[in-house]
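Why do we bother with holo predictions? Because pocket geometry can differ from the apo form. Keep that in mind while you read this record for 2-phosphoglyceric acid.
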Amino acid sequence: MDGRLEYRDPKKRDEVVELAIPILDFKARVVYNSRGEESIEVETSVEGAHGRASSPSGASVGKYEAVSFFGGNASRTLTKINSYKDKLVGLDASDPHSLMHALREIDGTANYSEIGGSAAYSFSIASAEAASNALGIPLYQLLLNGEEPRMPLPLGNVIGGGKHAGEGSPDIQEFLSYPRGTKSIAEGIRANIQVHKRVREILQEKDPRFSGGKGDEGAWAPNTSTEGALEALSEAISAVTDEVGFEIRIGLDMASTSLWNPREKTYTYSREGGKRRSTEEQIQFVLDLIDEYEIYYVEDPLHEEAFDDTHELTTRVNGCLIVGDDLFVTNTKILERAVKIGAGNGAILKVNQAGALGDALEFSELARKHRYQIIASHRSGDTIDANLAHIAIGTGATMIKSGVVGGERIAKLNELLRIDEFSFISRGKSMPLAKDR
Ligand code: 2PG
Ligand code: MG
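The structure, written out:
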């Protein structure tokens, strides 16, 4: 079913019309995310049901992302969204696309700076959740529009650096574990947890002063180099692979915009004594890392405007995903440009980069059309909302990127376990795993 019901309006006799689920009311409030920053939460009510969502927020924020807050803060955004109540109440909660159009029209800017991206995010997801609750179907089913659901695999952040960790940690922002060979979501999640645990032991063996400190996403924040982090992760992965008996691979989020110096046109690695790499050297560096550590996934290997360079790297790898996050910022127009150039073969999907849920759905449709793998992602400042699990399945994502531990991270993974269990109870089998395209 596509989440929309049809009925015959008795007044209009034979005319079949879609049964919309009108928004009866909504309540917005200021809440806090995992970093203790203010965020907007919205609760939407429809006949007999309600939905709730609160917006996450990033540390490595792309230049072209939706602007989170009107006037730069949450309370002004709250006043703003409330002032549009008469325009939003009555809209169809079950149709993320029409909600997006309404929000865009009210906003009138290209980046939601007038209404606040965090409000657009929370309102659109809370409303979709309310509609799915009213229909008695899971949110992902509403988003899939009749398509077969597939379970994404978890891409887990194990070691952090860059803007997520701090002084002394690696220059690269994230070192990730990907249980590529798992046969089930439960085993995949467990494998990442085992890798995370094992990495701590290895880091401690190497540096007895390692305190077990973690960055924003629950990844270890050790005082080590890129190489030190990769060695520790490789060692942990090979130990866990032996235990679980399936392939686990390394992923990286290089968040290269934070390394890029536009004046000098070099990537600066402060942990390597301020070493600078030209674009060609950066590409070669990434290729060497992929080769040496059999890396399966590299996000933002080049800065956020380097479409041609990303194209070049994409043509030079074999069997490795080159993924745009800050590069595409979940923006359909930017992805169109990337498609023409052939930059990357995977795309991060973060609803709050795009603004409203409908924007992210448009983005995922384009990505799938052009065979970019979709990686639905958390943000470094996140809330305990679990709806990322539904958004991942509902957008056809092959991976869900999140932390491995921490309440706001595990909330998304636990929801996948519930969804899988529900699939088992209702269909007698687990949800099929998403396959790499
Ligand atoms: C990223 C994200 C999530 P942030 O760069 O991919 O890991 O970080 O939310 O800080 O942009
Ligand atoms: Mg990223």
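The domain at 153-436 is CATH 3.20.20.120 (TIM Barrel).
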